[in-house]
Amino acid sequence: MPDPLTRQSALAARSGSDDLIQERTGLWIQRLYAPDREADFGDKIGLDLPGQANHVSQDKDLHALWVAPWEWLLVSEATANRDGLAARVAASGGALSDLSHARMVLRLAAEPARDILAKGCPLDLRPASFPPGHCAQSVLANVGILLHHLGDGAHMDIYTARSYGRFIHAWLNDAAPPA
Amino acid sequence: MLLIDCPHCGPRAQTEFSYGGAANVARPPAPEETDDAAWIEYLYLRDNAKGQHDELWQHIFGCRRWLQLRRDVISHEIISCSELRRPLAEDGP
Description:
The structure holds two protein chains of two kinds.
Chain A: E1 21-24, E2 28-33, H1 41-45, E3 56-59, E4 62-68, E5 71-76, H2 83-91, E6 95-98, E7 103-109, H3 110-117, E8 134-140, E9 143-149, E10 155-161, H4 165-175
Chain B: E1 3-6, E2 10-13, E3 18-22, H1 36-43, E4 52-58, E5 66-72, E6 78-83
Antiparallel strand pairs in B: 1-2, 3-4, 4-5, 5-6
């Protein structure tokens, strides 16, 4: 009898816990595509989508991150009762692709995160340029990342492809100041 | 390092972008009827002129959109950058 396909952390083989970096696991992550220049797409599918570049909107536990014109990343800790969304998106001419298993998400406190990321990411991360409630895609140590400065201002989430997860985790630990 | 002002994402470092070649090279309308010399001209031969240059760039680590950019290859000054439109405007992006 084969093992059942249970979800595992991208860092499962790594031992030890870490106070600096927490992995967020079990997230529901979808990339949402709207038909080009469909201004009221969010209303049609019943979501509050940020129209402005690099902005994030939040509706209860659901975050919508702007990633490109007419494209968003939807992220939630709750996976239940999303069946209606896919139907509404399809009926409105959009598309939804499930990235829940394709991304690794790390959470850091914003204060050390700025200094750590500055060692390998060209983004301007000063609070004036990258305030809470903003997101940006960039490179970190030559790996594509999506950075989300949470609305509370105290944390940042780093999204990266799951296959780069252990590398990015090791890189961040290496770049972090000694405890 | 160039600082490219992506019309979607804002000013970003060159490392987020991928260079896509000269913007104003026209593909021969009927490749099967084009002789080898003209095809080689289209594929490989560029003017490499001093001064302003129209280029294609893709914001590969950002919004993934293709951009057209007018750049001075002597001073590296970026004169303009906008979303790619076809056909290219005569007076640049």
